[in-house]
Design goal:
Blueprint lengths: L1 H27 L11 H8 L3 H13 L3 E4 L3 E4 L4 H13 L5 H22 L2 H19 L5 H14 L3 H20 L1 H7 L9 H15 L3 H17 L1
Antiparallel strand pairs: 1-2
Helix pairs in contact: 1-3, 1-4, 2-3, 5-7, 5-8, 5-10, 5-11, 6-7, 6-10, 7-8, 10-11
C-alpha cells in the first residue's frame, strides 16, 4: 500500500513537471490559444520522459479544459487567452492531491441542489432510471455486499434528472475520483463509507428509498431534506 502511494506521488511530481514545461513552451515559443501542441512523441523526446507520463499530463490539462485532444489530429491549446491560461495552469500545479473528504464535501453541496432540481424537472424516463439504480443498490446491500459503486450510480441518475448539464458534468467528473480514492485509500474511506457488514444498514436503504419517492412525487423541499439526512448518516459511518 505504501509503495502504491509512493508511486502515485512520484507520478504526480513527474506529471506536474511536464505540465510546467508545457507552460514554459507555450510562453516562450509564443504559442497562442488554439495552436497545436507538439505530439506526444516530440514532447517525450524533448522533455526526456515516457510517452505515458506525457499522456497523463495532457489528460490532466484536458480535465481542466486547458487543452483539447482531437483523435488523429492532435492536442490544441484552449481558447481562453494566454494570461488566463498561464494563471490557471499555475493554480492547477499548486493543487494538492484530492482526498476523499474534500471530494465528499463537494459532492454534498452539489447534490443538495441537484435533488431539488430533480424533483422539479424529472421525467418518467428519469424516474425509471433512478428506480433501476436504486434496485441494484438495494439488492447488493441486502446481500451484505459492498454497494458503494451502485450508490454512486443512483446519485448520478438523480444528477441527470436535474436537467442541469453543468451539474451533471461536475458529478460525472467527481464520481470516478470518489471511486478511485475509495478503492486506494482505506484510511480515508473508513471515515465515510461503511465496510461490508454482517448486519445490513436498513437505515441507509430506507433513506435512499425516501429520496427516490420525494423526487418521483415532485417534492423539491422534501427531496433536499432527505438528501441532507442521507449525508448525515454517511458522515457517521
Amino acid at each position: 500500500m505504501k509503495s502504491e502511494a509512493l508511486n502515485r506521488k512520484e507520478n504526480i511530481i513527474i506529471q506536474n513537471d511536464i505540465i510546467n514545461k508545457i507552460k514554459d513552451l507555450i510562453l516562450y515559443k509564443n504559442l497562442e490559444p488554439g495552436d497545436k501542441l507538439p505530439s506526444e512523441r516530440v514532447l517525450s523526446e524533448k522533455l526526456d520522459v515516457s510517452r505515458r507520463n506525457v499522456r497523463e499530463a495532457i489528460r490532466k490539462l484536458e480535465f481542466y479544459q486547458l487543452v483539447k485532444s482531437i483523435p488523429q489530429t492532435g492536442t490544441f491549446i484552449a481558447d481562453i487567452g494566454q494570461i488566463a491560461l498561464n494563471g490557471i495552469i499555475g493554480d492547477v500545479l499548486s493543487l494538492k492531491e484530492q482526498d476523499f473528504k474534500s471530494l465528499v464535501e463537494t459532492r454534498v453541496h452539489l447534490e443538495l441542489k441537484i435533488a431539488g432540481l430533480a424533483a422539479e424537472r424529472r421525467t418518467e424516463f428519469d424516474v425509471k432510471q433512478i428506480e433501476e439504480k436504486l434496485t441494484n443498490y438495494k439488492l447488493k446491500s441486502l446481500n451484505g455486499e459492498n454497494a458503494f459503486q451502485e450508490d454512486l450510480l443512483f446519485h448520478l441518475a438523480i444528477a441527470k434528472a436535474s436537467g442541469n448539464s453543468t451539474m451533471n458534468t461536475l458529478m460525472l467528473q467527481i464520481t470516478p475520483k470518489l471511486i478511485s480514492v475509495y478503492e486506494n485509500n482505506s484510511c480515508d474511506k473508513s471515515k465515510f463509507v461503511s465496510d461490508v457488514k454482517k448486519n445490513v444498514d436498513l437505515e441507509e436503504i430506507k433513506i435512499h428509498e425516501e429520496i427516490f419517492c420525494a423526487i418521483k412525487d415532485g417534492n423539491p423541499q422534501l427531496a433536499v431534506n432527505k438528501m441532507k439526512i442521507h449525508f448525515k448518516i454517511v458522515k457517521k459511518l
